[in-house]
């Protein structure tokens, strides 16, 4: 471990301006849980490679037991991960790729101080809910029986270009809409709570998914520069959008957020007053994992690809969720030269169309290479540069397995 720590610290010195000290400390303290059964190449990706495949569904038998912790960890045979919500844990697939991160709390933060941040965020969410009005249809969404608000910007749903998501904030009359938007503005300007949570989850993304983080960062900066009306929710976030589930009892049946970027991560923070031993667990179905998910803790994972759900809490409890993500359509728009597919095709030559189709076929293979390898990170290689120098970039999940000689050659460089 001492050698690993020195390697990480030395490599971090080469990334001044890209990796904060907190991100470095996240890696130093992390432990890994292996899920050898997970082959990421088999996850349901759309034909374009930008988003998940919404046609994928769980068998009916599993859907009937999604609410029952004892059945999932008993007869169904899912593995139970008794996470304390404090330490950092990375979940690693069968090719050493970091699939998900259980973030815990910031390194060096006293538990009581972080609890104050969490309480402040919860207070801001409760105030936003109290100051808002919701139409009846807004109190029950496709993700569960709770009210929510989405803000930031996205692409899709018939829009010809990226749009601010606050157009979804509705109300009965202009005054109600204005009041609801004002409530959201107060929520996202909550420095000591919501913004602190966003900052920490961005640090986690930077640390454990550095290649993807930098691509998100570049994309958001370019999009905001092209369209100034696309304002970030928070000054330094790389996520384009966020949703707050107000509850008061937020839990969701198994689903995928297939409109999000396929190989990207969403950041899910649990908040509220509930007993995490009795409910609120995060279930990652493709990984066959049931994860204890205490209030105040954050998890990052590819929500467009992995079917996930949260278990019900007790009737007298409260649970909120703060979720940050980016639409896959934004990356497609950017790759098209800030055009829709239809507009791009109108001016494309036959050769350009062929090149584009070839790029689509390669996209998922390329995307797999952007996931950080756990052993690369352990040895301080944030960007996977030694892997490139060793000629191992093409050794993806879609090709033959890397040999022990390949791995040894990489680690010895």
TrEMBL record:
* Taxonomic superkingdom: Eukaryota
Q: Could you tell me what this protein is called?
A: Uncharacterized protein
- Please give the organism: Collybiopsis confluens
Q: What is the lineage of its organism?
A: Eukaryota, Fungi, Dikarya, Basidiomycota, Agaricomycotina
